[in-house]
Amino acid sequence: MTAAAHPQSHARPDTKPATALGRSERPPIVIRRVEVDLDAPSPKYWYDGKPAITSFAYALSAVFPDGERFFIDAVRHYRDRITDPALAAEVRAFIGQEAQHGQVHERYNARAEADGFAMSDLTKRAQQQLAELRKTAPPEVQLAITCALEHFTAMMAEQLLGDPSFSEGVPFPHLETWRWHAAEEAEHKAVAFDVYMAVDGSYAKRVRTYLVVSFMFSASTLARTYYLMWKDGTLGSVKNHLDLLHWLLVKPGLARNVLPGWLDYLRPGFHPWDRDDRHLLDRWKREWAPAFR
Questions:
Q1: 3-state SS class at 61
Q2: Helices (H), the chain
């Protein structure tokens, strides 16, 4: 069963910058029970038969378990300084969702390892890097890093939920897992940012951290992708490299399409809910969420 079974109406997510939604207008942050069968049969190169794009997805997933725990700790560090009861409730829901993401992606990574991808090498490296970051970066910088990476996941969520070409040729359980993660990233995309604005709010620190994170995130994701391909024996194929470049830059064009959202973050008055993607969440809940109740 693929995305073709669920026709979608928009070729691009409609998320034009506007005034940020008030908290009462935002969708609730829901901790869902995940019932996806992560062991369901599917091809090794499940992304439309393309090794490079499959490896790219696994390169992201490899760092999610420990990355999500880093996000939780960065936000939780300031929990006692949150005086707004609504934001405090969102922090609790954020922690619940991110903990669930880490657990599910541990199982997902184990499936990838069983399929022959060198996931444990990447997860061990991520653990070491994040442990070092916890030691060297002050808490406010760790929170700014979390804000930056949460913006990246929110931008990618917009694309996955809003552009049907991202889902072409992707079978379940992979499509279910990635859509669920995208939807919840969209739901809680403002929590770390709102905590940052409540306890620090420095524009210079936010943007400086964002620029560094942007480079490191992009470079490390590609490096992990190529490592998986190398270990899998698919790195030497020119076609595989062209497939990945076409996917990132042309169709569906992940890197190209996130550029407006990437620039948004640089605005002094930016807020994550300037980009209103409630209609994408409504569609996910209506059409694609039977396994998440």
A1: helix
A2: 51-76, 85-114, 119-136, 139-162, 174-187, 191-199, 203-232, 238-249, 254-257, 259-264, 278-283
Least confident residue range of 30-39, 89-98, 159-168? 30-39
The whole-angstrom distance between residue 167's C-alpha and the CA centroid of its chain comes to 15
Q: Which residue has the tokens 């942007």?
A: 214
pTM above 0.85, yes or no: yes
Q: Write the single-letter amino acid at 163.
A: D
Phi, psi of 87 (to 5 degrees): -70, -40
- 14-43: b or e for each residue (b if 16 or more CB lie within 10 Å)? ebeeeebbeeeebbebbeeebebebeeebe
Question: What backbone phi and psi angles, to 5 degrees, belong to 17?
Answer: -55, 135
CA–CA distance, 76 with 92 (Å, rounded to integer): 9
pLDDT of residue 21: 84
Determine the Cα–Cα distance for residues 24 and 244; give it in Å rounded to an integer. Answer: 40
Q: What type of residue is 204?
A: A
| DSSP conformational letter for 34 | B
Residues 6+ away with beta carbon under 8 Å from 248? 254, 255, 256
Are 201 and 43 contacting, i.e. CB atoms less than 8 angstroms apart?
A: no
Cis peptide leading into residue 173 (ω within 30°): yes
